[in-house]
């Protein structure tokens, strides 16, 4: 999607057009693309460790700025079209060509969605991102402190632009669903009503020893930021909500089906129609149900899918007694899974990952548990757990989520990627099929490694996968109602009623994203099976994982090319060098 936060235009100094050969021209295009990407999303610079020209701006969202960025992307595409990737002199430049091609294709296709006209998003909207900006905002020098004051003083202008965009969206027939608007109202109210001393936005003041800056920054939060947030909340509550659509599917917006096609392609990087994704997901779900039935026969002498999941969900030893117990248990699983993952990889990243509950303003808003990376290895990454729903969580479910977010899942994936030598464009590039596909694959890998403590997680991890491929396409394209979608998701027993309703709202605001988990995982599993069949005894799991992860987040076509090239090289070598003990 487009940038999540913005307020004012920022003109990045782009490199002068490179003279010379094709390699120089490719390097120049990549540098321009990175600068443009960081202008759109400055937060990406902090998260991914890419240098920003300053720390004083939000990303631009005024109509004229969006048009300017579109034109800049079109110019990049014209330059890329003139370059033959086979003529490039290094693997890194060839990868940059593939990444930029994917990025530009995706961004242009997504223009039909007009996301800026209905960006009221409880999952990844700008109110949620504000707390992360506050955490990363640098304040070490006098210049940085001045820039912090400049950025946060400009938030009221950003809010005004967001309100203007949403009003224009209503005029043109675009809106977020009303149920999502209610969730965002709760999030913004939590921010706007917090005392300055307790606000998650006051972090820059708490990290500085400069008394004058601390006082000035707290004044900005209290006198400018909080009133602007309250104004946005009131706009949503008093004006926008009543006009927001009640249907969840993006097909209710203008050109909604075209938007879904573009969004699905962007998240998965695969050339599959919504119907193809739906049918592939249904086939995978049927296979999972059959496996669960067979497991249930062994465990309970009963192969009924619903009965098996009910017994597991209601088992006394699969419950938590408190929120604190869920958090502590998740931390223990992360520690244990890190140790167990040593046999799965050539090396583990040393960066710490903390397990922490949501900040107060996000509690109860329907946001999902998630991973927050940090490129700086001295900073911790975070597994943010929606622990307020502890009464409906199970120990098996907590184990599945912990390995998905931690080891061998996202923390292994992303913290390891940060240690690899990659170009800035490779650092910036992202798609959900690779990221979430690995997370889903990690759930399977955890079972192979003996990480799950009992059969509950083994059964529950099979109940949910591929359901997103079916429900997401059903909701957005195939005419499913909210009620039908929720009932289909409830069948898994994976989530309680509140979490399932929240999941439906999540799908509404991230059309196609929930399909990416299993679209990506199925590709990774298929590549592993291909490698095992081709290499036989020469197949080494740790080296396969190294090849999947070391290039960073790449489109599925690039991942396939990488793995098939690795298979060919390994087969040609005849034998592989034995992996070192870890």
TrEMBL record:
Name of the molecule in the record:
DUF885 domain-containing protein
Where are the membrane-spanning stretches?
none
Q: Which residues form the signal peptide?
A: 1-18
Instruction: Extract the Pfam families matched here.
Output: DUF885 (PF05960)
Which keywords belong to this entry? Signal
Q: Could you tell me the superkingdom of the organism this chain comes from?
A: Bacteria
- UniProt lineage: Bacteria, Pseudomonadati, Pseudomonadota, Gammaproteobacteria, Lysobacterales
